[in-house]
Amino acid sequence: MASGKKRGKQTVVFDNPPVLTAWSAVVGPKEGDGPWGKDFDFIIDDYMFGEKTWEKAETKMLRETIKLTLSKRFFTPEDVELLLAGDLLNQTVSSNFAARELQIPYLGLYGACSTMAESLVTGSMLMDGGFFERVVAASCSHHYASYRQYRFPTEQGVQSTPSTQWTATAAGAILLEAGGTGPRVTSATIGKVIDMGQTDMADMGCAMAPAAADTIKTHFDDLGRSTDYYDLVVTGDLAKIGMAAAEQLFIRDGLVPKPNYSDCGVLLYDETQGVDAGGSGCGCCAAMLCGPLLKKIVNGDISKLLLVATGALMSPTTSFQGESIPAIAHAVAIEM
Question: Which CATH class is domain 6-177?
Answer without folding.
Answer: alpha beta
